[in-house]
């Protein structure tokens, strides 16, 4: 996307009619290429709690179990290896209380299942390490606290979106190819626990396989009141009511993402109105990091 087309997109959103102002809007702030040479398929992202301005991201299936550190400029800040775990199909990443111990943990979602055939999926609970100091800082490692083994109540599902709500409920949004995406959830189990997920409903998102409107990531606002769900080409917002995020703030086709991503997958909040996106492939075949300002969430 050229600078002119980006500007036109921003002005279009800012000049929306009064009726549309009641809904959230997004404004493109900046886009950067993720330059870490081993980071080629960024499938999830979350902001560090240990160092302001640092983001953790991961590669998806077939790659090593590594946490990459970057910033809004896409710089290579090094990586941390997660020991004694596998990357079958890592698809999302979120930061939340560890629950089983003090401090914050990175919840690494090994939940991808393109063949809809895995008998169970796994979420690794990893204490957030200190972010590395630069591209040469690659010798660090961290062990997972535990593995949370999850089974669906009906059949295997492909999924790429995970959040931990209010430090106690783990939620997965499926990447369904037809019909609205489903939400499954469970209370966070004890250390090295297993759980049967419960069906919690569907989200009013107009799935479109041909155009690419399939759910590829999710994130909770810092207040825990707004759920952001992204697809390859749109962002959708939902407000919490009781224990469910069932108040849509955007139409079923969502808000178009104002940047060209060939395979956008990651999404995270970095503050109440700053949204961070990452993609598997973008400019020159490299992963991208994009920051958006969200207007009108009213948290």
Report what the structure shows:
- This protein has one helix at 3-14; strands at residues 25-33, 42-47, 54-59, 66-71, 79-83, 90-97, 104-110, 121-127, 140-143, 146-151, 159-165, 169-174, 182-187, 194-196, 198-202, 215-220, 226-231, 234-241, 244-248, 255-256, 264-269, 274-279, 288-295.
- With 299 residues, it is mainly β.
- The strands form five sheets. It has a five-stranded mixed sheet with strand order 2-3-4-5-9, with no helix packed on it. Strands 6-7-8-10-14 form a five-stranded mixed sheet, with no helix packed on it.
- Helices cover 4% and strands 46% of the residues.
- The chain is built from one helix and 23 strands.
Report how far apart the termini are. Answer: 31 Å
- Mean model confidence by pLDDT: 89
- Quaternary organization: single chain
| Helix vs. strand class | mainly beta
Q: Give the strand tally.
A: 23
Question: Level of helix content?
Answer: under 10%
Supply the key terms:
299 residues, mainly beta, five-stranded mixed beta sheet, 1 helix, globular, disordered N terminus
Layout of SSEs?
Layout: H1 3-14, E1 25-33, E2 42-47, E3 54-59, E4 66-71, E5 79-83, E6 90-97, E7 104-110, E8 121-127, E9 140-143, E10 146-151, E11 159-165, E12 169-174, E13 182-187, E14 194-196, E15 198-202, E16 215-220, E17 226-231, E18 234-241, E19 244-248, E20 255-256, E21 264-269, E22 274-279, E23 288-295
Parallel strand pairs: 5-9, 10-14
Antiparallel strand pairs: 1-23, 2-3, 3-4, 4-5, 6-7, 7-8, 8-10, 11-12, 12-13, 13-15, 16-17, 17-18, 18-19, 18-20, 21-22, 22-23
């Amino acid at each position: 996307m050229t600078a002119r087309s980006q500007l036109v997109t921003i002005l279009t959103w800012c000049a929306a009619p009064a009726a549309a102002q009641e809904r959230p809007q997004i404004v493109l702030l900046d886009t950067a290429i993720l330059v870490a040479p081993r980071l080629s398929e960024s499938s999830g992202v979350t902001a560090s709690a240990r160092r302001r301005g640092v983001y953790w991201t991961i590669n998806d299936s077939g790659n090593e179990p590594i946490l990459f550190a970057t910033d809004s400029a896409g710089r290579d800040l090094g990586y941390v290896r997660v020991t004694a775990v596998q990357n079958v199909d890592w698809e999302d990443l979120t930061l939340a209380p560890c629950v089983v111990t003090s401090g914050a943990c990175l919840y690494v979602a090994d939940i991808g299942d393109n063949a809809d055939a895995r008998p169970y999926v796994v979420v690794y609970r990893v204490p957030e390490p200190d972010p590395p100091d630069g591209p040469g800082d690659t010798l660090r490692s961290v062990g997972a606290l535990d593995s949370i083994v999850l089974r669906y109540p009906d059949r295997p599902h492909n999924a790429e979106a995970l959040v931990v709500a209010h430090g106690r409920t783990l939620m997965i949004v499926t990447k369904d190819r037809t019909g609205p995406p489903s939400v499954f959830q469970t209370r966070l189990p004890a250390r090295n626990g297993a759980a049967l997920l419960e069906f919690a409903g569907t989200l009013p998102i107009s799935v479109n396989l041909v155009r690419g409107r399939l759910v590829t990531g999710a994130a909770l606002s810092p207040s825990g009141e707004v759920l952001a769900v992204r697809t390859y080409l749109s962002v959708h917002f939902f407000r919490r009511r009781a224990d469910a995020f069932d108040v849509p703030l955007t139409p079923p086709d969502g808000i178009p993402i104002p940047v060209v991503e060939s395979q956008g997958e990651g999404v995270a909040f970095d503050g109440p109105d700053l949204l961070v996106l990452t993609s598997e492939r973008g400019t020159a075949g490299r992963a991208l990091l994009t920051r958006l300002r969200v207007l009108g969430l009213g948290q």
